[in-house]
Structures are given as structure tokens and as C-alpha cells.
Amino acid sequence: MASAKSSGSKDTYSVILPTFNERQNLPIITWLLNRTFTEQNLDWELVIVDDGSPDGTQEVAAQLVKAYSPHVQLRPRTGKLGLGTAYVHGLKYAKGNYIIIMDADFSHHPKFIPQMIEKMKEGDYDIVTGTRYAGDGGVYGWDLKRKLTSKGANIFADTVLRPGVSDLTGSFRLYKRAVLEKLFESTDARGFTMQMALAVTAKAKGYSIGEVPISFVDRVYGDSKLGGEEIVEYAKGVLQLWWSI
Amino acid sequence: MTRAQQTISLALLVTSLYLSLYLGLIPLPAVVQEEIIPVLPLWSLVTFGAWLLVRLGWGMLTFRDTPDAYAELMEEIKLAKADLRVKGVDVD
């Protein structure tokens, strides 16, 4: 892919946003992205991968494509095919040499993107990930039970996998495009354990990962998708990674 | 080398080291051989468990809440909605 450039003038940042029923959040996150990138004078684009949302997400997305032309593209799919394949799908259409992965529901605030870009340049990291658990990272909107579950899960994964990353399940990340493409080739994991798999695989392959503390504001609209079943899936995912990577 | 391979090889190493002490292959003072070596595995397990709990407790104590981030976000959402309506995007 691209060789090292001395100035940032040719860098394009592609945000891949998988969506399912995000009609309320999508316009606002797009507005925030537009504001951040415009303020920073960065070339950007947004690839929305919608899995056939029944709530009208695609209609709103079409309006955003017009309102923020030429930065926004909508690449829909016909059914709920899952997060991992959504990223792969989005990557096909993304034109940038840097890829940003994040959630569409404000838990990940675009204001941290410039910090991540800065961090990446500082240390020439292959990946920069937002962390809720280090520095002045933090969370808003979690009760004690949720905090316990999350911290417990993180300690479990950290002990079993020793990944050297403080927030293993975090999904707010900036990747060099070539690195992400390589990782997708070698990782089979899909579903929400994919984020963990990407980080652990990256470490195993010797890629460098930098961290930026972020504040994670949970679920302004909508319900959290964390239940007993997810916890079991998570534990299985961690053990599978332990075995295979 | 996978994490599993790393962990298992380390475990095997520690186990053989322990066995050599347990079977008296290395001369040790009687107190150590009789009182300490036999309980070492259980003690290690308990200590490890306690360590994990300390980490969890510490994590709970130092967990940062970010109410400012929430307040800021609420303000931004208001601004965003106003601007988006002008641009012809449906917002609630």
C-alpha cells in the first residue's frame, strides 16, 4: 500500500459504520464526524453499512448522502449479516488509507479521532485504540453491575491472553488500511468477539498498538445488548483466541 | 507460538520444578520440605485468586465516570438536530 508520506496532505480517513436500527443516532454521528474532520481540515469519508434496518435507517442515510456530499456513501446489505462481515463489506468501498472503526450510537465520540491520528503519527503505530480503562478514560451511564461485568471480563481476557492492551473489547480504533486488510485475511472471528480477535492477532503478528483514553457514553437511546448469553459467548471467544493465536 | 502453547509450556516447567522439590530431589531444610512444599500449589491458587479479586476491586474503585462528557454530548445533539433539519435530514 502507500509508502511513508512526509506530509499529511494526501491522507484520507474512512469511517466504516455498520448500522442496524440507528435512525436516530446516524444523523447526529454524521454531523459530529463532519464537524471534527472539517475543523481539523482532514479529507474524510463515511461508509454506512446498513443491514436492512426496518426502522428507516436507510432513508435517513440517503438524506445524509445528499446533505454531506461527497463524503458519505451508503452500502446496504439485505439482512442482518453481522458486524465482522459488515466491516469487510465497507472496506471494499472505502477509499481512505486510514480506516476508523467505531459504533454509531455516540458511545464513541468523534472528538477523539484527532487525538488518535496524532498518537498514530507520534509513535508510527499500526493501530490506535480508544481505551476506557487507562489514563483519563472513563464511562458514563453504567451501573455497578455493568461496571463489574465489564472490568471482570477485561481482567479475564487480560489474564488469559496477556494482550498488552488495556481495553481489549473496545471497538473505537484507527487502523492503517494495509494493517486492517492483513488482519481481516487472517482472522476468522466474526461477531462481537471480532474486536478482541483483531487486537490479539495484531499483537501476535507484531503490529504496534497505541492507546488514547476515551470517554464512553453508553446508550443515549436504545437498550444495551449485554445479557447472560453474550457473556458465555464472550468467554468462549476468549478461550478460542487463547487456543488459536 | 500461541498463547495456549506459551501458557502450557510455562505450566509444564513450573510443574516439573515443583515435582523435583516435592520428591525431595533437591535437598531442603526439613521445615521447608515438610510444611511448605506440600501446600505450595493450593497456596499459589488462593493467592492468584486473591490477586484477581484485588485487581477487580481496584478497578471498581478507580473506575472513572464521565458526567461531563454526557452533558457535552447532550448539548451537541441539540446543535446537531437544528443544523440537520436545515439540511433536510429527518431528526426526531
Automatic annotation (TrEMBL), chain A:
Key words, A-Z: Endoplasmic reticulum, Glycosyltransferase, Magnesium, Manganese, Metal-binding, Transferase
Biological processes annotated in GO: alcohol metabolic process; dolichol-linked oligosaccharide biosynthetic process; GPI anchor biosynthetic process; isoprenoid metabolic process; protein O-linked glycosylation via mannose
Catalytic activity as recorded in UniProt: a di-trans,poly-cis-dolichyl phosphate + GDP-alpha-D-mannose = a di-trans,poly-cis-dolichyl beta-D-mannosyl phosphate + GDP
Subcellular locations according to the entry: Endoplasmic reticulum
Cellular component aspect of the GO annotation: endoplasmic reticulum membrane
Role, per record: Transfers mannose from GDP-mannose to dolichol monophosphate to form dolichol phosphate mannose (Dol-P-Man) which is the mannosyl donor in pathways leading to N-glycosylation, glycosyl phosphatidylinositol membrane anchoring, and O-mannosylation of proteins.
Name of the protein: Dolichol-phosphate mannosyltransferase subunit 1
Species in which this protein is naturally found: Triangularia verruculosa
Phylogenetic classification of the source organism: Eukaryota, Fungi, Dikarya, Ascomycota, Pezizomycotina
UniProtKB/TrEMBL annotation, chain B:
Source organism, top-level taxon: Eukaryota
Gene Ontology MF annotations: glycosyltransferase activity
Keyword Coiled coil: no
Presence of keyword Transferase: yes
Topological type in the membrane: Multi-pass membrane protein
Any one Gene Ontology BP term: GPI anchor biosynthetic process
Keywords of the record: Endoplasmic reticulum, Glycosyltransferase, Membrane, Transferase, Transmembrane, Transmembrane helix
Pathway, per record: Protein modification; protein glycosylation
Gene Ontology, cellular component aspect: dolichol-phosphate-mannose synthase complex; endoplasmic reticulum membrane
Pfam families: DPM3
Bilayer-crossing regions: 7-30, 36-54
Localisation per UniProt entry: Endoplasmic reticulum membrane
Major place of residence: endoplasmic reticulum
InterPro entries for this protein: DPM3
Subunit structure: Component of the dolichol-phosphate mannose (DPM) synthase complex.
Role this protein plays: Stabilizer subunit of the dolichol-phosphate mannose (DPM) synthase complex; tethers catalytic subunit to the ER.
Family the UniProt entry places it in: Belongs to the DPM3 family.
Protein name (database record): Dolichol-phosphate mannosyltransferase subunit 3
Lineage: Eukaryota, Fungi, Dikarya, Ascomycota, Pezizomycotina
